[in-house]
Structure formats: structure tokens, C-alpha cells
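User: Predict the structure for this protein chain, please.
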Amino acid sequence: MLKLEKKEIVGISALLIHAAKIDEIYSEKEKKIIKNFIENNISEITEIDKIIKDAEKLEENSNQLLNYTKIIKDSPLKTKTEIIEQLWKILISDNNVDLYESNLMRRICGLIYFSDKESGEIKMRLMKSK
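Assistant: Here is the predicted structure, written as C-alpha cells:
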């Protein structure tokens, strides 16, 4: 469990939604992964639907990854690792990672100063555990 404020959870959830929508299919499986992330990081369970709505609105109104990654960039490595793991869970949920999805992950990793090697290791671990 990460120690995040509601505003941070909304921003990170918007990034997760952006990743989910990059292949133009925002599936129930992806929504469930995002909902689980929110559930695991807030104390008020009643807030989940509002956070999802706020995050979807933020994602629709922002076309710059920087808005989402600013929140993560200064976080501890453990937080970054958890977020990269959530992003990969979403991207591999349909058993197909396309060029756009791979490019998105490389860009995000660069923006938050997270190693591509570690990102790849997380991806492989998650794919093996599916």
C-alpha cells in the first residue's frame, strides 16, 4: 500500500486510464485493475467511484503525460515500482502489448526516471504469473 493523497491517486489513476485507452479498448478487466489500485490506496471505500470519475475526466482533458508523471517523478522507488507494475498489469491484460503501449511505457519510465531494465523485468514477471 502506497501513502498517497487523494489528488495523487486521481492523477495516477488518470495515467492508468490513459494506458488502458491507448489501444482504444478500455475493457472491464482494465477498469478492475484500476479500481483495485484505488481500493488499495485509499481509506474511504465510498470514494472509489468519485476518484474513477475524476480520473477519467482528467484523462480526457489532458493530452500531456507530464501532467500525470509529475506526481510520480519525485516519489520513492517503491512507489514508482508499484505504479509501473499497475501500468504493465493493464497493458498485458489483453495478452497483447503493441508498439504504442511499449512506447508509452518507455516514455513514462523516462519521465519518472525509472529504469527500462526494471520495467522489463516487471513485465516479464507479470506475464509469467498470468
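The first helix runs from residue 6 to 21.
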